[in-house]
Amino acid sequence: MTKPSVKELSVTTTFLDMLKDDEGATLVEYGLVVSLIAVAAIVAIGALGTKVSDTFNAIATKITPPS
Questions:
Q1: Do 24 and 18 form a contact (C-beta atoms < 8 A)?
Q2: pTM, whole model, 2 decimals?
Q3: What is the pLDDT of residue 35?
């Protein structure tokens, strides 16, 4: 069996340090919150979009253009 090179040890050490670092978890949590907000906004816009459009169309048909 050969001994690992200095570069291999450096990569392994860096990877293990990244696993121990908990600051990345905060970024992942923020990403999840943002994605949930985006999904909620898309659902709300989809549900309300046709109602708002119908309301504006009803108002537009009642407005008479200037003569």
A1: yes
A2: 0.44
A3: 93
